[in-house]
């Protein structure tokens, strides 16, 4: 298991990527079909974990993540949490869990000398409305431009360019770098030349994003050690049982892919030591 308390104590930088709206079955099928070769080289055991999200749309899912509640395994017994807000005195926390004495993870990491930076994707990170200011307002620094959003066919490239620039800017200090990948959020029909969003167009969107995510992670781990966490915030229904969209308690929305791994600076996605990952 990853000892996140040790990660923070040693000032290891953290990359947290949410693939917005990505269904677990889409992520798994794309992996098995060879459509995400860069992620295939990164994922522990070459596979996604199937987990259950704590929120059925972007806002509550991310509020939960930043409060210490990452997606859970579909089983009664859970592994220790990676991070957790300081609990009441009667509760025991695993020694490997990072416990932050603050209202949220970002404030807690700042207390430990981390620079917290958000690379927004969907409009919940855009600051265009009061509600769209909640999540980016939790970070010390937040970036969002229209080309980061899902209607832009090359959104992930623009987001990764910004993320790598941030990593270079803060190369001399611990960094919590968060990227909300919007390409897998509707609309993504443009990746299949269709005006309708579907299971197939989300698969194509993930295949597009894969190359740039590989470029991001290779660029980061070439210089220092990183804890990397990747998951979806929720899934999306494309007509199953008559349901469409998100914000509903349907398996297509609740089941999400998840992965967490420690990557050493000598590794790349084409040459790495799988034993260094969870």
TrEMBL record:
It holds the Pfam family Sulfatase. Residues 14-250 form the Sulfatase N-terminal domain. GO terms for molecular function: hydrolase activity. It comes from Streptomyces sp. NBC_00180. Keywords: Hydrolase. InterPro entries: Alkaline_phosphatase_core_sf (IPR017850), STM4013-like (IPR047838), Sulfatase_N (IPR000917). The lineage of its organism: Bacteria, Bacillati, Actinomycetota, Actinomycetes, Kitasatosporales. This is STM4013/SEN3800 family hydrolase.
